[in-house]
Amino acid sequence: MDYVQEKITTLHILTDEIPTIPMDGVSVVIPIAERDFYLENSVNTFRSMEQLDIDNLFVALRCGKDKIEEICQWLNEFDIPLNIIWCNGERVQKILRDEGIVGRQGKGYDIWIALGLASEKSEFIICQDVDRETYVGDDISRLLLPLKEGNKFVKGYYARVGNGKLYGRLNRLFYVPLLRAIGSIHDDSIVKYLEAFRYGLSGEFGIESEIAKKIRIERLFGLEVGMMGEAFRLAGFESTVQVDMGICDHAHREVIGPNGLSKMSLEVSGALFRVLQEYGVELEYKSILKKYDLIANKMVKQYRLDAKYNSLVFDELGENFQIAEYRKSIVDPENDDRLPPWNEISGRKGVMNKLSCEDMGKFGSEINI
């Protein structure tokens, strides 16, 4: 255990004490997809939320029309100040189309909608993944304390260990070695800022509502990296904090497949390269790829020893297979289609009023969700 500071303020778990922090002025955003419905981890997350005195919980829901009533009825069984946004529902889609918001949709798109609504209701916003196995109330307190101490952006970090294995594969086998490869070539401030985060792909973060209104958000799974790029612009080194969340476990994905880690790696690299290009970093992909191969393979050997040190199972062939898949994502990014800041949307108040039905936490007709 250490308490060494990074280039951004880094808070560590050094005792068993949880920060005691009032929950006034706080909204929580939780994205949930149809595949998360009824999972034990999802139930644990919402049971945890019942124990907190928060102002609002915004559930950014993505599911099929055949599941919406069942999922909303399930969500309403929890005793929480619930606001459900059916992000791919026809009503929400029409409201946003009328404002010219079209294009690809995914986790980032859903969180963008919820952040916009939450920023109108509370001073601070905490975003929390739904698939955590551990009690999320402690995490929300840890993320909130730095915000109430005057910081603008807070991100969680943790060790992903479960089932006797090291997880966090996309972060430790792709994002970290890729960023180190870039850092070995470029010493720009944005690179140093991104390198300072211990778990760049964590989904847990806290943000001031006024900052949330100013950020552009990646539409898909590059949203965490894109969010850090925006935080560099709006919060900087001096008003960014990362907080220790201990050992955590999430639901795990396959490497290959439509929702697999390999596909996600392309979205992550695209977001990273867009951020770097925006700040004037000139990328040479062949050089980066060579550096990535060297660094990633060295890190596999380091993880093998770390796993043995902790009596964990380690699949070196599987780790190397993933690196071979992820390296395919080190290519020039697609065109920038990030979602606009909410404060730049003409008629923002009108859009918010249309999205914020009084009864969107109760399932009625599609018109009301």
Describe the structure.
Helix 6 runs parallel beside helix 10, helix 6 crosses helix 11 and helix 11 runs antiparallel to helix 12. The chain has one domain: Alpha-Beta Complex (Spore Coat Polysaccharide Biosynthesis Protein SpsA, Chain A). By secondary structure, it is α/β, with parallel strands linked by helices. It is built from 13 helices and nine strands. The C terminus is likely disordered. Helices cover 42% and strands 14% of the residues. Helix 1 links the parallel strand 2 and strand 3. Strands 1, 2, 3, 4, 5, 6, 7, 8 and 9 form a nine-stranded mixed sheet that branches.
Helix-strand blueprint:
Layout: E1 9-11, E2 26-33, H1 40-50, E3 56-62, H2 68-75, E4 82-86, H3 90-98, H4 107-119, E5 124-127, H5 136-148, E6 153-162, E7 165-166, H6 169-183, H7 189-195, E8 205-208, H8 209-212, H9 223-234, E9 240-248, H10 261-278, H11 285-309, H12 316-326, H13 348-355
Parallel strand pairs: 1-9, 2-3, 2-5, 3-4, 6-9
Antiparallel strand pairs: 5-8, 6-7, 6-8
Helix pairs in contact: 6-7, 6-10, 6-11, 6-12, 9-10, 11-12
Keywords, separated by commas or semicolons:
about 375 residues; alpha/beta; Spore Coat Polysaccharide Biosynthesis Protein SpsA, Chain A; disordered C terminus
State the CATH topology: Spore Coat Polysaccharide Biosynthesis Protein SpsA, Chain A
Q: Treating each run of at least 4 consecutive H or I residues as one helix, how many helices? A: 13
Beta-strand content estimate? 5-15%
What count of domains describes the coordinates? 1
User: What composes the largest sheet?
Assistant: 9 strands, mixed
How many strand elements? Answer: 9
